[in-house]
User: What shape does this take?
Amino acid sequence: MSGLIEILRRKDRQIDSLKLQRLNTNRKLDLLMTSNLDYKRFVMAVGKCNVPRLNQLVRSALRKKHGINGIIQLIGRAALGTYSPRHTEQEHLMSVVLYWLGGARVAESNIATAFQIDAPSNNQVVGLVCMIDEIKVEEVLDWCLHTNSVIGLCREHSGCNAHAINNIDDLHFGMEATVAAIGALTGNHRQYIARPFLITDKHADLLHLACSACNQMHKETKGNGESRRGKALVALTEHTPLSPTSRLYAYLGGLPLLNLLVGEDELTSDKDYKHVMKRLRHTHLRPSGVSVGVLRSHLEGNKYPSSQINNLMNATDKQDVTTMFNLMLLIWKLPPPLTTDNPIYYETRVALNQHSKLVKYLILPYINVDMSLHDQLKSLSAAAHLAYIFFTDHNAHSAYLPSPLYRDIQIMVKNAFFCVAKMKRDNPNGEFFLILLGMDRLEWIFGLIRSQNGSDVNVSTYTLLGRTSGAVECHSILSQHPEWDRGPRRLRLQGLSTTTGIEQKIDHLNPALWKGDVRVSGVQLMSAWSSGRHEKSSASLSRPRVPIC
Assistant: This one.
């Protein structure tokens, strides 16, 4: 009897347990159904409510640990206009660019991350370049509220005194404004943007004042080759031999034929490499030097289309960097002559092949993203030596290259070696990006200035002051991700990558895209300079005996 009673008790306990399990299961199902209904309400709210910045609303709610019901309530409040999420950083940056630029320059923008404008750290030794160029301004007068003066007069005629106007013919309007910008030699995109400031004259004393403002450990002054400013730069940066007691002398003193003249505080000048390359293209389009007809016949003999040759040798288009690069590429791809060729044609092709070596040595360091810093300096050294050999061979001089262009090539090569030596002195473990020695950063500022205010691309001296600050802010934002801005087409220089044996085109060259080793710790300047000297041995010409840089 007792056994039957125990069995009944176990049965009752099992029944109670199953009833509890059923109750728990029903409760879970109710919760899941309620949650499912909440998510359906969320989907319906997203589909029906026209709420701006919904992603920012949801992100903010999740950050505040809101549940699905809290998110739905926020969506409802946003739809009624009683709640509005804050603007995203993306929208803030886009509003800055659209405010200053607008139009086609930002039609393809897709700004996705935040960017903060930073200046170089004070506790870090950073090299600086002072870039100087002119921008065309409207010939008008403006009254400056801050200085209570009339600006826009010609600097050479107005002077620093008040200009008494007795007749309209007495006025001489300014046609261009000189702009100077400071750029840091660093791979950090937050630091290497150009920061312009205006100076009022082109002469050496005021250039010296501008350079004194760059009171950093090492610096250089850069111009685009304008003749009057070039003379002032030479007077400023080549008046004193480099002292044997200088720390730079340990790196540069043993380099044969290198010009060691410097300015105060070991200041050096530079020339924009893109301007030099464009002027090098011009030498192929003039009557003297490399004959246009001879070059055309050899390009046609290499089966290049006539339409392509005509486009690349268009003498009226002298500012297009892409056209320059494409023409130079065709020249250094010309194969050696055949033994069966006409003797005159044979000798001409040999001369073109030798000339193409100079072109290649001069351009590749700035476009081949796989080149190390040592290889870049080696190539520039070879270009400097070859330029000297060809320039002085049989007293060719300007019949081969214009004298100012030859001089600018040597200045450019000299400055590259000096800058690397200064980096080795001040930051032995740092990186040096040769492409930052160009004037691109200032040229981009000019492009942004002219892109402001819709179709009104012209500026007066006064409006230039206001537009410059906006251009700097936009350049700071766009420099982090160049894909946001299609950029100025005529300044675009494509890079080459040959690691896989295939040339890979890369637009918008910047330090982030450079693949080669650019650490100065692995560079021996004597080795790079000497290796470049030996490269010219293939030309079978005599070695130079006088300084070339």
Observations:
- The longest strand covers residues 128-136.
- The two ends are 119 Å apart (CA to CA).
